[in-house]
Amino acid sequence: MNKKETIIRMSKDAGITAPQAAKAFSSMMEGIKSTLKHGEKVTFSGFGSFEVKERKARKGRNPKTGAEVAIPPKKRIKFNPSKSLKNAL
Q: What are the residue boundaries of the structural domains of the chain, listed by start?
C-alpha cells in the first residue's frame, strides 16, 4: 500500500473527500516527523511505536581496497510492532 492508496482508503473509511484525507495524512506525517525530530517516541496502540536511536561510531572497511574507514555516529528510526500486530501476521 502506498501513499495514494492510503489516502483513498482513508477518504472512503472516514466518509470525507480525497483532498481532506490527503490533508489529514500530511498533517499526521508532519506530526510524527516533528515528534521524532525532538527525540520523543511515537506510539500507536495496537500498531507499534517509532523512536530515534543513535548508532555509535565504528570502524569499517572499504570492500574494494580493504582500507579501514571511520563510520560516523548516525541517527536511525526504530519501529517496534505491537504484540497484537505481530499476532495478526
A: 1-39, 41-89
The rounded distance, in Å, linking the Cα atoms of 88 and 86 is: 5
CATH number assigned to the domain covering 41-89: 4.10.520.10
In tens, the pLDDT along 30-64 reads 999 999 999 999 999 999 999 999 999 999 999 99
CB under 8 A, 24+ apart: contacts of 42-48: 44/82, 45/82, 46/82, 46/84, 46/85, 47/81, 47/82, 47/85, 48/79, 48/80, 48/81, 48/82, 48/85
pLDDT tens for each residue of 58-79 = 999 999 998 999 999 999 999 9
